[in-house]
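debug: dumping io for the single-chain case to check the tokenizer round-trip. Nothing else runs in this session.
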Amino acid sequence: MKLLEMLQEIHPQFDYEKSEDFFEDGFLDSFDLTRLIAALEDGFDISIGGDELSSENFKNLEAIAGLLARHGVSEF
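debug: decoded output
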């Protein structure tokens, strides 16, 4: 899973698959989110708009997968 690999590059010690909320669990902060967005845009050749920059779109794997799906990404 490319998405999981991107997250693990930010913090390899965290188990992103078990977290329901990356922010609440301390897995991501605003700096990490900036890195993740850049990785997603580069890795999947998409552009994430300012209106999509809410914690709800990045709070867990399911939320990020939904965001990617809305951008036409089918494998993540």
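debug: round-trip ok. The chain is about 45% helix and 0% strand.
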